[in-house]
Amino acid sequence: MTAQIIVVEAAAAGERLDRFLAARGSWGSRAQVQRLIAAGHVRVDEAVVKAGTLLRVGQRISVVAVPAQLAPAEAAPEAIDLDILYEDDWILVIDKPPGLVVHPAPGNWRGTVVNALLNHWHGPRPGLDPARPGIVHRLDKDTSGVLVVAKDAITLADLAAQFRARKVTKQYVAFVWGRVRKDRGTIAARIGRHPVERKRMAVRPAGREAVTEFEVLERIDGVTLLRLFPHTGRTHQLRVHLAAIGHPIVGDKLYGHGGRPSVAGRQALHAEQLAFRHPRTGAAVAFRAPLPADMAGLRETLKRKSA
To answer: Is 18 a catalytic residue?
Structure first.
């Protein structure tokens, strides 16, 4: 029987196996996932495990005996333009545009970064999961900015280890509602799955540690432009933290509120820079993506209003 292989990303580290698989939506409810695990159809790094197993970055989850009607489609190459910031024999760094999903999943089997990568590489890379080739971290569909991809299994493992050890420096910019009073600050609030709305995360005392530093860049017409430094990689961390302090990201439909002006159809959040040690050369590298057109346009609109 064929198996679907999933490589655990930094954002999923510490999450229960059954919750992680149920949230992906390919194998039914959490109870159905637990039955699959109990029947031995799910393995982590080739070992039979329990539903409550806590995941670690870089682990390989294999799931077999998936009902045909739920089986994910195989990723196929698609001619999707990539804004390449850097590429060598081992890594590829892109500026992901808003609206582009990173990897295929229910509801988004096509038109993803993975489909674009398979086209750019003229097929799958040897030794990499063909469903998620080289994907070590991700950005939300409507978050733009720097994304690094590994081009071989050794590089992927090294990058995963750097993310797991928090040796990757991540820098974002965001427009948030309201006037943030402090010029600099730290948000330290644990994050866990929302108790009722499973697609949402929330600040919860029993959640996982999450820390975000921020600094104010501009205050314009009731909106603040922030630079953000997440020290942990929890799902939706920046969006949840900013909403929790009363300054949700402009345009965030899940954690924010309505209002104008805004960006079209997405949260005004951009992964501005990513810095890490090159997995093969050992050199310190940093890659930066300029403010995208929609967020730059929002900035100009706010400035005109406040003039």
So the answer is: no
